[in-house]
């Protein structure tokens, strides 16, 4: 079997990618396997550990941007309070039951005990305005913080379920679950393809050169290109879902969107500069090197010709 042989193959010239040696494919597949396994572990460790409460909180904070849902939320809270008091009255439970209703009821006025400034939460909730993910509105965000611990989340899930096909349908499914599936599929498939290609390469006679290595310059290089492309797309999706996961866990979710743009732009600039540098090394420098090599060959041929003429004279 070729896996036990120590002989190293020479490079083979391929139309797909120029000169390719066995060691090139072997090293690229090993690197792809390490990176794929690392990214898959990150995806599982971060995206697959989100709890039910975090998913529902993400839906709640996201839906609160919409005036339609905020009107629904106010109606639900008023109905909850009215139902509780009606139950106490019909059952003749007395003051203790009413006290329980008062404790569960939403206080629609937030008062700062130091400055005595107050915020009308009902007015903020009923404002006929849809917010984006980063716009700052103090009264609106105070209303979000005060309501999320009182609101019956099962009613939000039921309301959202009835609106399939709209922006109101379980935002966490679109922004997190769907992207997580694609991230996991791309990174895991790249890991599996890497393992299969590496085993095939080791069991082949490509190490000895010849036709096996020539065929692997096509099949193996195309596989390596697929692996790294899938990894690149998976990493981009992972970075997007990272923002979403932080949104679901950070207490002030909207601050995540307000603060993440700078680091994203910096990362994009670094990646573009790296791509430009690689393209320059791969496409521009070889062109000038070829010209210099041709010029050097011409200079070398002139002394050789002179030397040959000298021998003929003698």
List the helices and strands and how they pair.
Blueprint: E1 12-14, E2 18-20, H1 22-47, H2 52-63, H3 67-91, H4 95-104, E3 109-111, E4 118-120, H5 121-125, H6 138-147, H7 153-161, H8 171-203, H9 210-249, H10 253-259, H11 261-313
Antiparallel strand pairs: 1-2, 3-4
What strand order characterises the main sheet?
Answer: 1-2
Shape: elongated
Question: What is the helix tally?
Answer: 11
How confident is the prediction overall: mean pLDDT?
81
Order of helices and strands: EEHHHHEEHHHHHHH
* Protein structure class: mainly alpha
Work out the radius of gyration: 33 Å
In short:
The protein is mainly α and 314 residues long. Helix content is 73%, strand content 4%. The two termini are 59 Å apart.
What does this structure look like?
With 314 residues, this protein is mainly α. Helix content is 73%, strand content 4%. The strands form two sheets. The protein has a two-stranded antiparallel ribbon. The chain has a two-stranded antiparallel ribbon with strand order 3-4. A hairpin with a 6-residue loop joins strand 3 and strand 4. The longest helix is centred in the last third of the chain and has 53 residues. The relative contact order is 0.13.
Give keywords.
two-stranded antiparallel ribbon; 4% strand; mainly alpha; 4 strands; 314 residues; two-stranded antiparallel sheet; 73% helix; single chain
């Amino acid at each position: 079997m070729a896996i036990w042989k120590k002989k190293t193959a020479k490079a083979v010239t391929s139309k797909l990618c120029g000169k390719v040696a066995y060691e090139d494919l072997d090293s690229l597949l090993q690197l792809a396997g390490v990176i794929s396994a690392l990214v898959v572990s990150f995806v599982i460790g971060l995206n697959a550990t989100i709890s039910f409460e975090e998913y529902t909180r993400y839906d709640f904070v996201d839906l609160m941007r919409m005036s339609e849902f905020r009107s629904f939320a106010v109606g639900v809270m008023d109905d909850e309070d009215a139902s509780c008091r009606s139950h106490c009255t019909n059952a003749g439970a007395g003051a203790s039951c009413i006290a329980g209703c008062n404790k569960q009821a939403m206080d629609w006025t937030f008062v700062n005990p130091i400055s005595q400034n107050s915020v009308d939460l009902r007015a903020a909730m009923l404002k006929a305005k849809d917010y984006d993910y980063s716009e700052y509105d103090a009264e609106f965000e105070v209303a979000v913080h005060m309501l999320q611990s009182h609101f019956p989340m099962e009613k939000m899930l039921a309301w959202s379920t009835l609106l399939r096909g709209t922006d109101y349908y379980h935002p966490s499914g679109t922004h997190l679950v769907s992207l997580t599936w694609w991230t996991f599929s791309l990174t895991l498939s790249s890991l599996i393809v890497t393992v299969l290609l590496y085993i095939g390469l080791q069991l082949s006679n490509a190490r000895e050169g010849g036709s096996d290595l020539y065929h692997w310059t096509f099949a193996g290089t195309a596989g390596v290109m697929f692996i790294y492309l899938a990894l690149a797309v998976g990493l981009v999706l992972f970075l997007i879902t990272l923002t979403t996961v932080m949104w679901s866990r950070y207490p002030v979710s909207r601050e995540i969107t307000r603060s993440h743009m700078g680091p994203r732009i910096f990362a994009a600039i670094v990646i573009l500069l790296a791509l430009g540098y690689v393209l320059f090394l791969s496409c521009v420098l070889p062109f000038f090197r070829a010209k210099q090599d041709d010029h050097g060959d011409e200079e070398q041929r002139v002394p050789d010709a002179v030397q040959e003429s000298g021998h003929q004279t003698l």
